[in-house]
Design goal:
alpha+beta; 4-stranded antiparallel sheet
């Protein structure tokens, strides 16, 4: 039988291949990749105008979508809003007027991304409704984030607007019953 030389099957490893296969080499590769991604992200932040336009488009799509079923449906609508634009009907235009009356969209620029927030009476600190990164605006708006209507609010804490036990009159004679809502339109007590 022939005697095999075990050294003939080994390949000589170079210094660079040894470095790239080591733990330190993998960490360096990962760090360089992360730095390249951060550099690309910081140079491709959507502008404030782009963020505003795309966020308003996503808001129009959210308003036009009348079936507010669950979070998954709204997540799918937000995902498709990245690639589509809203069809504006007369109803959507009227609702957008209400939206602009009661809500304010603010865009904030960060180092690697930008965000858009809706500020309204329910959430004065704001609700994040869009991200902008790598030149793409990703909406995250839900219907309950917007304030589209306002109504009377209770004057005192934990007091209902209408007393559920107050039925007005005992008989329904077909006339309009003027219910007293108190001084709900004036939030300040004035002394005469």
């Amino acid at each position: 039988m022939a005697n095999l030389d075990n050294n003939s099957y080994r390949t000589k490893e170079t210094l660079s291949s040894t470095f790239f296969h080591s733990c330190l080499g993998k960490i360096v590769i990962l760090a360089v990749f992360a730095l390249l991604m951060f550099f690309a992200a910081s140079n491709s932040i959507p502008s404030e105008e782009t963020m505003r336009n795309e966020t308003n488009d996503a808001i129009k799509e959210c308003i036009a979508d009348t079936k507010h079923i669950d979070k998954l449906d709204e997540w799918v609508r937000n995902f498709t809003a990245i690639f589509t634009s809203a069809d504006t009907t007369e109803m959507v235009r009227e609702m957008m007027k209400d939206f602009e009356k009661y809500n304010n969209v603010e865009v904030y620029q960060h180092t690697f991304y930008s965000t858009a927030y809706i500020h309204n009476a329910f959430k004065p600190e704001g609700i994040r409704v869009a991200w902008g990164i790598f030149g793409i605006v990703i909406p995250t708006i839900y219907y309950q984030d917007m304030l589209l209507r306002v109504g009377p609010a209770p004057k005192e804490y934990n007091k209902p607007l209408i007393d559920p036990l107050d039925t007005g009159s005992s008989e329904d004679d077909g006339t309009f019953v003027d219910m007293d809502f108190g001084n709900s339109h004036d939030s300040y007590d004035t002394e005469d």
